[in-house]
## 1
Amino acid sequence: MTAKVDITRAEAQGLPMKRKSIALVSILAGLVLASVAVATLEPMSGACPIDGGGMYFTGQTKTVSGKLLYQYKCPQGHTTWVVQ
Ligand SMILES: [Zn+2]
């Protein structure tokens, strides 16, 4: 009876914490993957302001004044930074 209580206590204190941390890691990993997927699969931002060509996300980002900017490039090599 005593041993059973101890095991139950160990489960109550140990396992849920372990599951919680695993769940947290999974959530974080999911968020990172989702971010990468969004960035990678980001459709064309629109037409190039110079020649009207379709633009694609280059994978480059930068932060200006707390805003995340994404670099887009047209086939002719013109680049522009877009705020999402
Ligand atoms: Zn262009």
## 2
Amino acid sequence: MAYESISHMATQQQFGFTTPTKPHPLDAFSLDGVYRTNWGGAVHADSLEVLRSLPDDSIDLVVTSPPYALHFKKEYGNANQEEYIEWLLPFAREIRRVLLDTGSFVLNVGGAWVPGKPTRSIYTYKLLVALVEDVGLELAQEFFWYNPAKMPVPAEWVTVRRIRVKDSVEFVWWFSKTPFPKATNRAVLRPYSKDMIRLNKKGLQATKRPAGHVINESFANTENGGSIPPNVLDEDTPTDLLKFGNNAANDPYTRRCKEAGVKIHPARFPAILPEFFIKMLTDPEDVVIDPFAGSNTTGMVAEGLDRRWIGIDMEASYLEASRFRFDDFDGRGPSEVEVTVSKNKTKRRRESSRAKG
Ligand SMILES: C[S@@+](CC[C@H](N)C(=O)[O-])C[C@H]1O[C@@H](n2cnc3c(N)ncnc32)[C@H](O)[C@@H]1O
């Protein structure tokens, strides 16, 4: 079966108007949300406190991108490189505690330069070691997010003296509580390449690669629904962005923030990042948490995939703007989203009734 038809079938099944059969996550965990949708809710709080309030072994997936230890501090504040690991470990310990044995923790962190020198900080590597050796997480697999749109910085080394190149990847580490978390790569297959399809048609003879790997006839079998993806997430990674909105300059979130004169979150990750891991590591109705939710990219994707979700951020204005992600969501419209507090309630209600004619 061709990839396109699988994707289409999934779209038909997954994105209808649905509600969970299990308790809403805000109710299940007795949390106060600033807003709630059918599948989840946004909580304005320090996520360390929220994580501490959750029971052991209760969460299927944590996918998140905390503030990075950047040399130039972002407006929401970054612990500097030395303090960073110390700052993050208490969150990671709570995350490990609340994860189910089948659960996973996906952490996106960017690299950094040593201030004043054309050398890279090794804080990310120290952090990785600490998460495995001190916190006790298993490193299920490392991924890389290839983002060619990253700026060529530090300018001094990259564009002025030209002695370094553009840093275009960020780490995405997939941790788990046990060596066998729930996972299936069948949920994230890619379309077969033209070469694969050609080889399949032509037929492949068993052969040995120079490195000694034996390639047999089944290698070019294109009957398995798609090819197994690599551990690099990039713009070629298949996605349901049209359903979720994306991070392009004119996506619904940024457009509506601009229209409303509301600040756009300065460090969003692309929808493909939570999408890939939510699909691969969870089932519908599972609970997904983003403890550094920002503009709530994770919640939006979870909503579209019928996963229960909780997004936590300590900056109220980011959560307030993140409501826009659920306006007109997949044709459900804001009327289907139960909004408990909103500055834009009146405007949004008006839009909703207009949409209904
Ligand atoms: C890199 S941003 C996350 C962006 C998000 N992935 C998105 O796509 O919009 C990190 C977020 O963590 C939040 N944050 C920092 N410390 C926090 C804490 N202790 N509890 C909750 N949120 C926190 C910041 O306000 C910021 O919005």
